[in-house]
Specification:
The protein is α/β, with parallel strands linked by helices and 535 residues long. The chain contains 19 helices and eleven strands.
Length: 535
């Protein structure tokens, strides 16, 4: 995915159409998991937050070196005199890698005491030769805390990635390894890790619902770039042209921005991702951008976002967000950046659906009445590394008349005066003791429900799961957008216990409640009588 350019590393991906299926179904994930376990053993007592940059930096270095070496081999075979001509690489959007920075040189020196210094020099050399990587790569491998033996073993381990593969297929696997390591480090870091990583199943659901096949994709708090990677996969998996999608992002954490830039480079995604310490609210780096799709997972319930300094900001079309919570600032910032036919998916804390504090209820009401709220999805718990706060998805649309479907992949109907509610809290499966993920079937069920509703073909309310509610119904609920209020109870399954037995059991339970009620009533009367005597 790019603004018209794409690295040579990704050109061959369509030949391996099974990659996505293998990732979703488990298949080769065993390889990535085993590799991570082996790499994790090497970190010793180093904190995951520090080791993350060590390992990911080396995977990135191997990726760019492999891309260079593949192009170098092509040129030697076809045009030997151009093998050391930088223009022959940049023309194919392949990073130029100076000789001392090539992986073969580092691997040959992996067991030397000065390997940390050699890696730092390699990173500096690559940055010096590739302006787009300036300030992105980690360059502190020579610090005393890093064991040269550990670095050498890690280089040997990474050297084995995709050893049996060639060219584009090998580099594609490196990209998958990089993404898997990002997710695994997020799990190791817990809350801190979740700040840079949105679980892949959540991103996949958002992408499948929005279908960003053509146009501008924007993430105002892009973390490590997972929204963009999944969008790229969607385009490829649905036969779209990568060059039809342009990627834009902002990130306020410099370390996370660097992870994002490396993640996108490994995937061959050429994106305009800006960093500034002030953040999207106070220094909007892309003020004139109007995106066709916005995908975002803003930090939940941020209380110190500096809203008092933005009281009269033109982005607050639906009401001034409270200084003590940025949720509705994010929603309105995103709406501000949508094109006239744009759609957005946003992860927020469940409180955003019902809170009435500090004017949030009035803003939510204005958004509903303004016709920009398209769909609400309640997510299951335990999906996120960073928080146990229950979360939901807001889907917003600037125009729901169906007349501006334009570049959308499907013809849409007029949805004005209606909001779709999906209660997905019972979906997902536990992947370990603490974390849940949505399965491919879960993603398909929710996404297909949304598409059928938007298109007006094949949709039907399902008690306990989904409901297309009228604006009058939403008003009757005080503009609270919690799906559970609308979808009702799930249809009861046929009970295998005969009715007489169930009735007898219920009667016993009811008698017990009556007895307890009488006991409590007697106790209260005694207390009241004592109070009167004492008085």
């Amino acid at each position: 995915m790019s603004k018209g350019r794409r690295s040579n590393a990704s050109k061959g991906r369509k030949r391996d159409k099974g990659n996505g299926a293998r990732e979703r179904g488990g298949g080769e994930l065993g390889f990535e998991a085993e590799l991570f376990k082996a790499a994790d053993k090497l970190r010793g007592n180093m904190e995951p937050s520090d080791y993350k940059h060590v390992a990911l930096g080396l995977i990135f270095l191997k990726h760019v070196s492999d891309g260079f070496e593949a192009r170098h081999a092509e040129l030697l075979a076809e045009y030997p005199e151009g093998a050391e001509d930088r223009d022959e690489y940049t023309a194919e959007n392949v990073f130029w890698v100076p000789r001392p920075a090539r992986w073969s040189h580092l691997r040959a020196s992996a067991r030397q005491p000065g390997i940390g210094k050699l890696i730092d020099e390699a990173m500096l050399a690559i940055e010096a030769e590739n302006q787009s990587l300036k300030g992105v790569l980690p360059k502190d491998y020579a610090r005393p805390a890093l064991s040269p033996t550990m670095l050498g073993e890690l280089i040997d381990l990474i050297s084995g990635i995709a050893l049996e593969r060639e060219g584009n297929e090998a580099r594609d696997l490196l990209g998958r390894v990089y993404e898997y390591f990002l997710g695994s480090f997020a799990g190791s870091e817990g809350k801190r890790g979740g700040e840079f990583y949105t679980p892949r199943s959540v991103v996949r659901l958002m992408v499948e619902m929005l279908e960003p096949l053509k146009g501008r994709v924007y993430d105002p708090c892009c973390g490590s770039g997972g929204m963009f990677v999944q969008s790229e996969r969607f385009v490829e998996g649905h036969g779209g042209r990568i060059g039809d999608v342009a990627v834009y992002g902002q990130e306020s954490n410099h370390t996370t921005w660097r992870l994002c830039r490396m993640n996108l480079a490994v995937r061959g995604i050429d994106a305009d991702v800006r960093w500034n310490a002030e953040g999207s609210f106070h220094k909007d780096e892309l003020p004139d951008l109007r995106a066709d799709f916005v995908l975002a997972n803003p930090p939940f319930n941020v209380s110190d976002w500096g809203g008092e300094r933005l009281a009269e900001d033109p982005r607050w079309r639906y009401g001034r967000p409270p200084p003590g919570n940025a949720n509705f600032a994010w929603l309105q910032h995103i709406l501000h950046h949508l094109s006239p036919s744009g759609t957005a998916g946003v992860v927020l804390a469940n409180g955003s659906m019902s809170s009435t504090q500090s004017g949030e209820g009035a803003i939510r009401e204005a958004m509903v009445e303004g016709g920009v709220v398209d769909c609400m999805v309640a997510l299951p718990g335990q999906l996120f590394y960073s928080t146990q706060i229950p979360a939901c998805l807001w889907f917003l649309a600037r125009d729901r008349s169906g007349e501006r479907a334009g570049d959308k992949s499907r013809a849409l109907r007029d949805r004005r005066g209606e909001v779709l509610f999906v209660d997905a809290r019972k979906l997902g499966r536990m992947v370990d003791r603490t974390r849940r993920e949505l399965t491919p079937d879960d993603v398909a069920r929710v996404a297909n429900t949304y598409h059928r509703w938007r298109e007006g073909e094949g949709y039907a309310d399902v008690p306990g799961f989904c409901k297309a509610a009228s604006l009058e119904e939403v008003r009757a609920h005080g503009h609270v957008l919690t799906p559970g209020r609308y979808v009702g109870a799930e249809a009861a399954a046929e009970d295998a216990v005969p009715f007489p037995e169930r009735f007898a059991a219920l009667k016993v339970e009811l008698e017990a409640h009556f007895a307890e009620s009488e006991r409590l009533t007697a106790t209260i009367r005694e207390k009241l009588a004592g109070a009167v005597v004492d008085g």
